[in-house]
Amino acid sequence: MAKLENNNENNNKKSAAENLGDQVQKAVENAGGKVKETVKEASELASDAIKHPVETAGEFGKQAVKDVTSYSWWARLLLVLFWLSLSLVVAVFVIINLPATKRWAADQALQIVNRDFKAQMSTESVDVFSSGMYRSKV
After folding, report:
1. Domains in the chain, number
2. 98 and 133 together in one domain
3. In 3-state terms, what secondary structure has residue 130?
4. Are residues 6 and 59 in the same domain?
5. CA–CA gap between residue 10 and residue 20 (Å, rounded)
6. For residue 39, is it within any domain?
């Protein structure tokens, strides 16, 4: 009984391999037809280029310009979104580094500190040196 099952499994494996071989053969035959068509079109294009070089070069130039300048709607959308987001990031970095923005952020932080600790600090009465030390102007 076990021999029959093993024999059936071997037959199934062979048929699967044969099926795969048939599929590969069909794919090769289909690709061969497409390759022949492509070679025929390429040879026609080459003969046209030899017989009429100026016209062929003009057609290639027109097609190249058309390919470069024609974007689909989604490609244009992606380009616009990319440049808008990049501009937004640059604008945020510029705004953050403005002295007025830094002064505003410092005032907001000091208001919170003064409210929490009931202190009377202000940005006008403190100098900050590059070494990290400070002194009061009072």
Report:
1. 2
2. yes
3. coil
4. yes
5. 15
6. yes
- Contact at 8 Å (CB) between 123 and 107? yes
Structure tokens at 96: 């953050």
Report d(CA 111, CA 136) in Å as an integer.
Answer: 18
pTM of the complete model beyond 0.70: no
Q: What is the pLDDT of residues 47-84, one digit of tens each?
A: 888 888 888 888 888 888 887 766 778 888 899 999 99
Q: 3-state DSSP call for residue 128? A: strand
Look up the domain containing 64 and give its range. 1-70
The secondary structure of 4-43 as a DSSP string is HHHHHHHHHHHHHHHHHHHHHHHHHHHHHHHHHHHHHHHH
Q: Domain check: are 63 and 109 in the same one?
A: no
What is the Cα gyration radius of the chain?
Answer: 38
- Strand ranges in 79-133 using DSSP code E only, listed in sequence order: 126-128
